[in-house]
Amino acid sequence: MVGALPGASHIWLLFAVGALSAVLWTACSGDSEPAGPTATPASAIDGELTVIASEWGFGPEGIILQQGEEVRITLQNDGAIIHNLKVSGLEVDVIADMSSGGFSADEGELLVGADSKDIGTITFVPLEPGEYAFYCSIGSHRQLGMEGSLIVE
Fold first, then answer.
1. Do 45 and 10 belong together in one domain?
2. Which of 56, 61, 65, 58 is nearest to 40 (CA)?
3. Pairing mode, if any, of strands 62-65 and 147-152?
4. How far is it, in rounded angstroms, from Cα 72 to Cα 38?
5. pLDDT tens-digit map of 7-18
6. Is the peptide bond before 60 cis (omega within 30 degrees of 0)?
């Protein structure tokens, strides 16, 4: 090539091989657990369900509840900072809300919070079937990955 730097084509070839290797390594990494919304959702057992919050996610990432059945969700914050769990748009009858960290919810709002290394609980009855997002409403925690799916059957 006229005007090309000596060895420039070799550098380009090495870059292309490196990029292809990274793609193949990621695709063949052997991760057998599904991630994100495809993960198996959890259901309440005897009306109880624990959701673990940490930086930056929830476990489980999916929850299935039954319309009209009372459930108590315990938010266990294993993280180093305060987190909460909020569900928007789901009509509920809140029976009890015992958040830590100074959280308070409006009437009928599904919100429970927990200080770092603490728990909060909320007992409620979901009134409408549907699919809803649950998330941490603090700062940019939701955008950082603290979001999951709640299904009411």
1. no
2. 61
3. parallel
4. 24
5. 555 554 444 444
6. yes
